[in-house]
Amino acid sequence: MTLEAFNSLSDFDQYDIIYNEGTFIDAIIEGSDRYVLYAVDTFFVELYYKSLPNKVVGKRAFVEGKLLDKYTVNQLK
């Protein structure tokens, strides 16, 4: 699946692919926020959770760039 095909799906179908076909890469906790990175085919998806009420409040899909930096820096700690 391409990033463009993923972005054209409904939110329901996107979450279905993330949770059922995606590969968990890493999670970062910053205060009450949690960021979770998944790999899906040839791109990445970052989910943004608020700790209370433990709900996804944002998602973004990307191929490369600065969004990956916080996860690579996290691995070095």
Give a structural overview.
- The protein is α+β, with helices and mostly antiparallel strands.
- Helix content is 35%, strand content 42%.
- The protein has a four-stranded antiparallel beta sheet, sandwiched between helices.
- The chain starts with a helix and ends with a helix.
Core attributes:
single chain; 77 residues; four-stranded antiparallel beta sheet; 3 helices; 35% helix; 42% strand
Provide a compact summary of the structure.
With 77 residues, this protein is an alpha+beta fold.
Percent range of helical residues: 25-40%
Mass-distribution shape:
globular
Average pLDDT works out at 89
Structural class: alpha+beta
User: Helical stretch count?
Assistant: 3
Order of helices and strands: HHEEEEH
* Strand arrangement in the largest pleated sheet: 1-2-3-4
What is the β-strand count? Answer: 4
Task: Characterize the main sheet.
Answer: 4 strands, antiparallel
Q: Segments where pLDDT lies below 50 for 5+ residues? A: none
Rg (CA only):
12 Å
Strand content: 35-45%
Question: What's the end-to-end separation, in Å?
Answer: 32 Å
Could you give the topology of this structure?
Layout: H1 3-7, H2 11-21, E1 23-30, E2 33-40, E3 43-50, E4 55-62, H3 66-76
Antiparallel strand pairs: 1-2, 2-3, 3-4
